[in-house]
Design a protein that fits this description.
The chain has 13 helices and 13 strands. By secondary structure, it is α/β, with parallel strands linked by helices. The two termini are about 40 Å apart. It binds pyridoxal-5'-phosphate.
């Protein structure tokens, strides 16, 4: 039998998707499942994006430029300018989702055995991208008690070694929902410059900031021009997860030149999806106003509901559409499986993402789950009721 690679064997499973077989078995038993585990919004994709694809009569579905359509990149740069992110089309590479942009970024700035420091808990697939790139993630702990605010800079500096190539942040955070303040972004910028390392910011949830709070991009800081790399995506902004379009943005010419070589190796991003993404830029502001209003009320409902359950501790999110909740249990992996395999309330149950997979420190976050508030309010309400009941029945 030919052997699987060490790298292949060490690729982590997604904590978000690994419970799917249990969910499928529950559905086969006729159970209804409220999916709180995955960041798939139920919000409609803007019609302007879908119409652009419907009304296109392409005769040859050809490759595009490796950096993506020039017209799209230029329009996207205009969009960013309106968000205090002064960039031009040449500083943007269109990628197959933010996921590919993360891979290109890691490939461009770190070699095998190099280190990237990331506040944890963090988006679980960073583990997968780092493993695929041969990079070691060095976690720095952020705490539920502070809603997962930026850890003290001294905690980062303790971890910086000759192998440290970058700090990676997710802003607003998945899974924490934390939105970094201007002061926090400035502190990170100072540190990146002082140690001459990259500051990579995953800003795929930029537009999802609540309570009137403003998002601060690393790309808005002029003196970070050589150190900042931004990751972005249309997946969440326009509820276009299936389009698989994202981008890598940097003012550092060498980063763009290097990432372009990765882009050339995979030829080009998908064509129809670029057409949809370019058209999506015409989405009226009213769409976003409605979406933010909807997510704000879902968040308020969820957080109040979770806080009303005995023994549950929750960090209040200021952005994105996730929260981390600490439950009065020992092991969320077992609990999440039990919810799907054994538990039901009037033939209904919930699916949550055990949070341990969002940490890289072993045995951390064991009693925590990530909950996505991507369901309609009546469904969220029912899901909270189910969780409350399940916790009264569950035995660790
Ligand atoms: C923080 C974060 N970054 C990147 C991605 C990848 O997004 P995509 O590849 O769909 O653009 C996701 C998807 O959920 C995410 O939550």
């Amino acid at each position: 039998m030919p052997k699987i690679s060490v790298k292949g064997n060490s690729m982590p499973e997604s904590p978000i998707r690994k419970l799917v077989p249990f969910a499928e078995a529950a559905i086969r038993k006729g159970r209804k499942i409220y999916q709180l585990n995955i960041g798939q919004p139920d919000i409609k994709t803007p019609s302007v994006a879908l119409d652009a694809v419907r009304n296109h009569n392409i005769e040859v579905l050809s490759y595009s430029h490796s950096a993506g359509f020039e017209g799209y990149r230029n329009k996207l740069a205009n969009y960013y300018k309106n968000h205090d992110i002064p960039v031009n089309g040449e500083q943007i590479i269109i990628t197959t989702g933010g996921s590919e942009a993360l891979l290109f970024a890691m490939g461009s700035i770190a070699d095998i055995g190099d280190e990237i420091i990331i506040p944890e808990p963090f988006y679980a697939n960073y583990n997968g991208f780092a493993t695929a790139s041969g990079i070691n993630i060095v976690p720095v702990e952020s705490k539920i008690e502070t809603n997962f605010a930026l850890p003290p800079i001294a905690d980062f500096e303790k971890l910086i070694t000759a192998k440290t190539k970058a700090i990676l942040i997710c802003n607003p955070g998945n899974p924490t929902g934390y939105l970094y303040t201007k002061e926090e972004i400035d502190q990170l910028a100072e540190m990146a410059i002082k140690h001459d390392i990259f500051l990579v910011a995953d800003e795929v949830y930029r537009e999802f900031a609540y309570d009137g709070a403003k998002h601060h991009s690393v790309m808005s800081i002029d003196k970070l021009k050589d150190h900042a790399i931004m990751i972005d995506s249309v997946s969440k902004r326009y509820s276009m997860c299936g389009a698989r379009i994202g981008c890598l943005v940097s003012k550092n010419k060498e980063v763009i030149h290097t990432a372009m070589k990765f882009a050339q190796a995979r030829l080009s991003p998908p064509t129809f999806e670029q057409i949809a993404s370019e058209a999506a830029l015409e989405t009226p502001q009213s769409y976003f106003d409605d979406v933010i209003k909807e997510y704000t009320s879902r968040r308020n409902l969820l957080i109040a509901g979770l806080k009303s359950i005995d023994g549950v501790k929750v960090a209040t999110p200021k952005g994105a559409f996730y929260c981390i909740a600490e439950l009065p249990i020992k092991n969320a992996d077992n609990f999440a499986k039990w919810l799907l395999e054994e538990y039901q309330l009037d033939n209904e149950t919930i699916m949550v993402a055990p949070a341990a997979g969002f940490y890289s420190t072993p045995n951390t976050g064991l009693n925590q789950v990530r909950i996505a508030y991507v369901l309609k309010k009546e469904n969220l309400e029912r899901a909270i009721e189910i969780l409350k009941n399940a916790l009264t029945v569950y035995k660790d």
